[in-house]
Sequence to fold (159 residues):
Amino acid sequence: MKILIVSDTHRKDDIFAEVLKKESPVDLIIHAGDAEGSEDYFEALTDAPFYYVAGNNDFFTDAPFDITFRTGSETIFLTHGHHYYVSTSEQYVEEEARARGASVLIYGHTHRPVIRQEEGLLIMNPGSLAYPRQIGRRPSYIVAKLSDSGKLQPEIRYL
Ligand SMILES: [Mn+2]
Fold:
């Protein structure tokens, strides 16, 4: 199983379509918010299940701010993260993920890619396909595969 994880596409729809084409076939797509209205278009591009949460620039969406769902043997907590002040620190969003019994935390908003393991919690941020802010500023996303035991094995990829 191959999972595509993106965030903060901010109406750069062509870049998402390019990544989807490059990584297809994918079995699941996770978008951590700030598509700014393009999420329905993205969902229609693929037959794969598409999980979406609302970001701070998503004013006209019915999407929830947080979702918790299971994939393989993982419990994933997905949020854009602005309600947990992720620009300042991962502390609050990490606490929320643990409170929900998550084994994986996926957030966005900072436009900086992250993959790290912290006391049993896999913490990931795919960065931004539209406006990357990390050193080098290359558009980034994450591809994760499920191991035989159902654990996520992620890697950051760049366009
Ligand atoms: Mn944002």
Q: What stands out?
A: The mean pLDDT is 97.
